[in-house]
Amino acid sequence: MLGIIGAMDEEVAKLKEKMKQVHIVEKAGMQFYRGALCDHEVVVVKCGVGKVHAAMCTQAMIDLFPVDGIVNTGIAGSLNADINIGDIVLAKDALEHDMDVSALGYAPGINPDLKDDENIFKTDVKMLELALAAAKQAELSVNIFTGRVVSGDQFISRKDKKKWLVETFDGTCAEMEGASIGHVASLNKIPYLIVRAISDKADDSAEMDYPSFAAMAIDNSVALMTEFVKLC
After folding, report:
1. Number of structural domains the chain divides into
2. Which tens digit of pLDDT belongs to each residue from 39-73?
């Protein structure tokens, strides 16, 4: 069974519309929709915005359902000048950029309870390959990129912060949930992937771009996910 997690209603509503034989399970204020999507068994849920919501949702999904893979869909701000609004980023890995205990001698992004290499949550290679194939089948009129997703409980809208995320973490796009989902999935040894459609440029124009382009970005993400499920 594939688990699909989105942060906002808009991100999962269109997937739920395509589902059949839906059974709803409620847990911790979240509604998990279990059913068939493109003749494949899935469970779809809105986790809510931010790392705590995302982590709680991921663990609940793993505890409640026999998921053998998790995809986090949604939107993000681009950290790369070549990645434009509407384009899609498929994560090779993810990290939590706002984890900061540097006052104790640790580098930014490092959680002292994890080994250094465990602070970067690698996505599943097979799922990434399937997503790349799905993107071709979806025939989207946008570009597809792979790279690093950096997550934190912040909406990135300043050029100096954007520059820091690139220079410090080599980030490709920034958002607020993916790495925490990767964190929980990795500890549970569940393969996972992050799919992010770009809604803004994560700079001084972000607050203006986001409302205008979020819907378009979500449409691209849903089209890719539909093809992805068909290939699973």
Report:
1. 1
2. 999 999 999 999 999 999 999 999 999 999 999 99
Predicted local distance difference test score (pLDDT) of residue 205: 63
* Enzyme catalytic residues: 11, 200
DSSP string, the chain: -EEEEESSHHHHHHHHHT-EEEEEEEETTEEEEEEEETTEEEEEEE--SSHHHHHHHHHHHHHHS--SEEEEEEEEEE-STT--TT-EEEEEEEEETT---GGGTPPTT--TTS-GGGGSEEPPHHHHHHHHHHHHHHT-SS-EEEEEEEE-SS----HHHHHHHHHHH--SEEESSHHHHHHHHHHTT--EEEEEEEEE-SSTTHHHHHHHHHHHHHHHHHHHHHHHHHH-
Residue numbers of the domain that contains 31:
2-231
Which percentage of the chain shows pLDDT scores above 90? Answer: 75
Give the CATH number, domain containing residue 225: 3.40.50.1580
